[in-house]
Specification:
Layout: H1 12-15, H2 17-41, H3 44-74, H4 88-117, H5 124-149, H6 153-182, H7 187-214, H8 224-232, E1 237-249, E2 252-261, H9 267-282, E3 286-292
Parallel strand pairs: 2-3
Antiparallel strand pairs: 1-2
Length: 305
């Protein structure tokens, strides 16, 4: 016998969809402004920042599409074959965001190497004005996404991209000031490369978090051995086996286990106590527990994986 919970819960990303839409609108407008300004001024730093902002807009768009798909599945209008709903789409969107950021970083570095040999003339005035406007837009988006980044991997991907954009805007402002005051055009490609390199560690961390979920590794904050001991200590439990822990999407950790019962153990009491222990100790609210009464040998065949 077993027990589980409903899959209709709201994902962490869905709770912050309104803020995502607002950030999407702000960044889309200023992305166009930075592209135009970068082309007019000839600034690679500004185009680098616009490239980051493009990945923000595209990434937030994918995040919103994933949230919509999850919501649609939760309403029962999705594919019935997807018994876990579409929650993993949020994780895939986060992984795609990381890939986009790495691609932009590589492009900026390649373009910067070309410019080191023959740095083009850069119009510092327009570059400075647009970089300041871009910084303000990124600060607005940063404030909108900050709260959701602590709950949703999908929102965290967009948040990290905006954080990278803030650094990019500051770098573009610095490059414009250097060029305007000294005429040293190498400041533009140097700062562009610095901006690209700074975002890489955060991007790799985001990709690592997404991959951990996709390969169904146990949540980093949960000690599997401790969970096993907790279930073993539930009154009436004789043994625990086939324990599996994984994350469905951000904020949704899942557990599965077989609990062999002691003689005279009350099934309802053991089930209630095990659920409470998982919730109180590890914040796991979705647990599928198979209870095996004493003397029912031969009915359970543990998985070999």
């Amino acid at each position: 016998m077993g027990a589980g919970h409903d899959h209709g819960a709201r994902s962490a990303g869905e709770k912050h969809a309104g803020r995502l839409w607002a950030a999407f609108a702000v960044l889309a407008v200023f992305m166009v402004l930075e592209v135009v300004g970068g082309l007019i001024s000839g600034s690679l730093a500004l185009l680098s920042d616009a490239g980051h902002m493009f990945t923000d807009v595209l990434g937030i768009g994918m995040a919103l599409a994933a949230i919509y798909a999850v919501k649609r599945a939760a309403r029962g209008t999705g594919n019935p074959q997807r018994t876990f709903g579409a929650y993993r789409l949020e994780v895939l969107a986060a992984l795609a965001n990381a890939a986009l950021l790495l691609g932009v970083a590589v492009w900026v570095c390649v373009e910067a190497v070309r410019r080191f040999t023959e740095p083009p003339e850069v119009l510092a005035g327009p570059m400075l004005a647009i970089a300041i406007a871009g910084l303000l837009a990124n600060l607005v988006a940063f404030a909108l996404l900050r709260a959701g980044s602590k709950e949703s991997l999908n929102v965290r991907g967009a948040y990290l991209e905006v954080l990278g954009d803030i650094l990019g805007s500051v770098g573009a402002i610095a490059a414009a000031v250097v060029i305007a005051t000294t005429g040293w055009r190498y400041a533009d490609p140097i700062i562009a490369v610095a901006m690209a390199v700074l975002i890489v560690p955060r991007t790799l961390a985001l990709a690592r978090s997404a991959v951990r979920i996709l390969i169904q590794a146990a949540p980093e904050h949960v000690d599997v051995a401790a969970v096993q001991r907790t279930l073993q200590d539930v009154p009436g439990v004789a043994a625990v086996h086939d324990l599996h822990l994984w994350t469905l999407t951000s904020g949704m950790d899942v557990a599965q286990a077989h609990l062999a019962l002691q003689p005279e153990a009350d099934v309802a009491d053991v089930l209630a106590a095990a659920r409470t222990a998982l919730h109180d100790g590890y914040d796991i609210d979705h647990a599928t527990l198979q209870l095996e009464p004493a003397g029912a040998g031969g009915t359970c065949h543990p998985a070999g994986w």
